[in-house]
Amino acid sequence: MNVNSISGLKFVLFIFWPWLVNSKGEQNRLLVNMTLVQNATALGAYCLDGSLPAYHLHRGFGAGVDNWLLQFEGGGWCNDIKSCLDRSKSNHGSTRYMNKWEVFSGILSNNASFNPDFYNWNRVKIRYCDGASFSGDAKFYNGTSLLYFRGQRIWQAIILDLLPKGLGHAKKAMLSGCSAGGLATFLHCDNFTSYLPKNASVKCLSDAGFFLDERDIALNHTMRSFYEGLITLQGVEPNLNQNCTSTLYYPHLCFFPQYALPFIETPFFILNSAYDVYQFHHILVPPSSDPRRHWDHCKLNVTACDTSQLNILQGFRIDMLTALRDFYQNSTRDGMYINSCFTHCQSETQDTWFAAGSPRIHNKTIAETVGDWYFRRNISKEIDCAYPCDTTCHHMI
Ligand SMILES: *[C@@H]1O[C@H](CO)[C@@H](O)[C@H](O)[C@H]1NC(C)=O
Ligand SMILES: *[C@@H]1O[C@H](CO)[C@@H](O)[C@H](O)[C@H]1NC(C)=O
Ligand SMILES: *[C@@H]1O[C@H](CO)[C@@H](O)[C@H](O)[C@H]1NC(C)=O
Ligand SMILES: *[C@@H]1O[C@H](CO)[C@@H](O)[C@H](O)[C@H]1NC(C)=O
Ligand SMILES: *[C@@H]1O[C@H](CO)[C@@H](O)[C@H](O)[C@H]1NC(C)=O
Ligand SMILES: *[C@@H]1O[C@H](CO)[C@@H](O)[C@H](O)[C@H]1NC(C)=O
Ligand SMILES: *[C@@H]1O[C@H](CO)[C@@H](O)[C@H](O)[C@H]1NC(C)=O
Ligand SMILES: *[C@@H]1O[C@H](CO)[C@@H](O)[C@H](O)[C@H]1NC(C)=O
Ligand SMILES: *[C@@H]1O[C@H](CO)[C@@H](O)[C@H](O)[C@H]1NC(C)=O
Ligand SMILES: *[C@@H]1O[C@H](CO)[C@@H](O)[C@H](O)[C@H]1NC(C)=O
Ligand SMILES: *[C@@H]1O[C@H](CO)[C@@H](O)[C@H](O)[C@H]1NC(C)=O
Ligand SMILES: *[C@@H]1O[C@H](CO)[C@@H](O)[C@H](O)[C@H]1NC(C)=O
């Protein structure tokens, strides 16, 4: 199964999105070095291959010195021994193979002109090396091969490492993440809050993490089956929201944000495209659902989709908005930004987060909308009109 990798997606990004590579401010590019969590050993918190987990921390300054932003890295999942063994030898399963310096841009930028509300916070990028959105707790050993499924312990080890560095007396804090990291934000949001001072302002932001429990075009539950394999292999279920799992007949469904969401007590912001390219390619039209490859052109270039394909994509958008209806209506403490761009992850790339040509809804960029929500400057629940009405999109074609 191909769901476990988004490398194909990155390929598309770099081929067709040249402005990402030559992004403005290249000479001011902020690179932040890696911190290995030495104490993780005491908790048995290891990457798939047994290496130590890691994060990158850039210190806050000025008025932001007591504020903390933690951002989970994304990168798909692994759901069986083979895919996890492969991953354990790559930068998504081992800190040994990771770049030791990370570019901090978009929501991680330290420059107010690129990141108006969070630039002076302590900003942390949490590296992803467990393959289960930081939520597994198991181990595989059959005499020759050894794999650690310890995402939940990695999460705890990193929090415990950061608390004495200032997180423990934060005044404001936000847990965020993109893709598989955006899913981790749903899974760990309330746990994050529990570690912080009671009088701190704590909120969570998921970017491209609202993976929908949707059948594919062959009517199979491809994503549900994929997650079932992952949850079983990596021992995820005990770490899901207990209030959710005790309510649902199929507790493992609480891995899907739409079911866990009503049980999350911390203020939450959902940033997602209604035509999220990862979900389009892996949930709605996975390769198994399209053996004759009728969708190949449409997947690479939305202007090549025919009418019936566009209708199916519109149906996916409606289903996503339906899953978000209570969230949209019920609370004033939450926020959302559901735009109509063929894209995936919009908070870490400068061009989509906050730049002259950034995507907008009602003339508001993502950074402005998230900031308005966090600081309660305005109600921030934006839903874009359906494709193709939005002319501000950076479609991945
Ligand atoms: C890298 O980060 C560590 C903290 O983990 C810090 O002590 C060290 O000075 C940094 N090295 C460089 C070259 O910035
Ligand atoms: C922020 O970016 C602007 C535009 O590139 C630049 O002029 C300015 O010097 C930067 N400020 C800092 C503090 O790096
Ligand atoms: C252990 O698992 C790996 C991966 O599935 C397999 O290649 C290997 O043959 C297994 N070893 C034993 C002793 O079963
Ligand atoms: C948060 O998660 C850790 C494990 O990572 C667990 O030990 C702790 O009890 C959790 N806290 C709450 C309040 O659920
Ligand atoms: C590591 O753990 C030891 C013992 O639990 C503790 O004394 C020490 O402060 C910890 N170090 C860090 C960097 O968290
Ligand atoms: C929370 O309370 C502590 C102790 O009273 C205080 O030092 C801190 O400034 C307070 N934080 C906020 C955000 O009010
Ligand atoms: C998908 O569904 C079709 C029937 O709609 C079935 O024949 C096929 O085996 C299923 N494929 C997968 C990968 O589950
Ligand atoms: C479950 O809900 C109760 C009551 O709202 C709350 O006190 C508790 O923290 C929740 N537990 C979890 C794991 O979210
Ligand atoms: C939202 O409101 C609807 C009724 O309008 C209610 O059925 C639902 O339980 C509410 N959801 C939450 C999470 O409060
Ligand atoms: C996308 O498809 C349209 C219609 O088939 C075509 O005109 C256009 O050149 C394609 N764009 C790219 C970048 O391939
Ligand atoms: C949109 O916002 C920009 C500033 O972000 C402003 O200059 C422009 O006039 C606005 N356009 C409209 C149509 O309101
Ligand atoms: C608040 O949002 C509304 C609707 O998007 C907008 O018309 C208004 O100008 C905003 N107010 C401020 C102070 O930004």
From TrEMBL:
<dbReference type="InterPro" id="IPR004963">
    <property type="entry name" value="PAE/NOTUM"/>
</dbReference>
<keyword id="KW-0964">Secreted</keyword>
<keyword id="KW-0732">Signal</keyword>
<protein>
    <recommendedName>
        <fullName>Pectin acetylesterase</fullName>
        <ecNumber>3.1.1.-</ecNumber>
    </recommendedName>
</protein>
<keyword id="KW-0961">Cell wall biogenesis/degradation</keyword>
<feature type="signal peptide">
    <location>
        <begin position="1"/>
        <end position="23"/>
    </location>
</feature>
<dbReference type="Pfam" id="PF03283">
    <property type="entry name" value="PAE"/>
</dbReference>
<comment type="function">
    <text>Hydrolyzes acetyl esters in homogalacturonan regions of pectin. In type I primary cell wall, galacturonic acid residues of pectin can be acetylated at the O-2 and O-3 positions. Decreasing the degree of acetylation of pectin gels in vitro alters their physical properties.</text>
</comment>
<keyword id="KW-0134">Cell wall</keyword>
<keyword id="KW-0378">Hydrolase</keyword>
<comment type="similarity">
    <text>Belongs to the pectinacetylesterase family.</text>
</comment>
